[in-house]
Amino acid sequence: MTIFQAIIMGIVQGLGEFLPISSSAHLVLLPWLFGWKDMGLTFDVALHMGTLLAVVLYFWKDWVSLFKGALRRKPSNEKRLFWYLIIATVPGALIGYALEDKAATVFRSPLLIGSMLILMGLILYWADRKRQLRTLETMTLMDAVLIGLSQALAIIPGVSRAGSTMTAARLLSLTREDAARFSFLLSTPIIMGAGLLSVRHLNASDINLAFVVGIITAFIVGLLSISFLLRYLKTSNFKIFVIYRFIVGLGVILLFLFR
């Protein structure tokens, strides 16, 4: 892998992990479009390390508050939210582990990815038209379970982990900003789990300059993506991402059929 490829893939991971456009789809499509060799598990570990560092650093105060709340005996919003995040993580973790092999083979078809980009974009558009009535303080256990189940769909490239969880949260009438915040917090354990699953295949000899560049790039772009989306959703909706998903999805399908 060249340094240029490492930078490009790091940018894609940093953007796609936190914006509702599917990082896994873009990480599959870019090598397919440009004829690059498979980056392999080593680089997958690097990209996940980068985005994990980004979300932990950005929300470290939130996580400290959540952990403190979980350790206290008295009920609190922090304690409730901490356990909701744990519960919401379970479906994605179980399904991701069970379908790990299919995610690396069957689910990587460009035709499937293009179709899912369009389909989930349309669902996000429909969900985003609901009124914003609720905040994280009103979240219930059932809300957490439903958002967790939606996250499990992201095993299919093109669905988008961020997109599926934000869509589910909007369907439950959470504000756009709180839908994004819960999605980002929920990404911490699932990215950590994905990284740990991949790191078992990692050897010290696999770590090189491209590995380090991938981590740094994904980390920086991930931080910028989180900050951008939280600010953007204060005054705007998800329409721009829906349009992007439709254009890219349609382009991938046409390229696949006529290439």
Walk me through what this model shows.
- By secondary structure, the protein is mostly helical.
- It has 12 helices and no strands.
- The chain starts with a helix and ends with a helix.
- The protein has one domain.
- The total count of strands amounts to 0
Count, helices: 12
Shape: globular
Largest sheet: none
Strand content: under 5%
Low-confidence residue ranges: none
> How many discrete structural domains?
1
What structural class do helix, strand and pairing data support? Answer: mainly alpha
Short description:
With 259 residues, this protein is mainly α. It contains 12 helices and no strands. The mean pLDDT is 89.
List keywords for this structure.
259 residues, mainly alpha, globular
Write the layout of secondary structure elements.
Blueprint: H1 3-16, H2 23-34, H3 40-58, H4 60-71, H5 77-98, H6 100-103, H7 110-127, H8 141-152, H9 161-171, H10 176-199, H11 209-232, H12 239-258
Helix pairs in contact: 1-2, 1-3, 1-11, 2-7, 3-10, 3-11, 4-5, 5-8, 5-10, 7-9, 7-12, 8-9, 9-10, 10-11
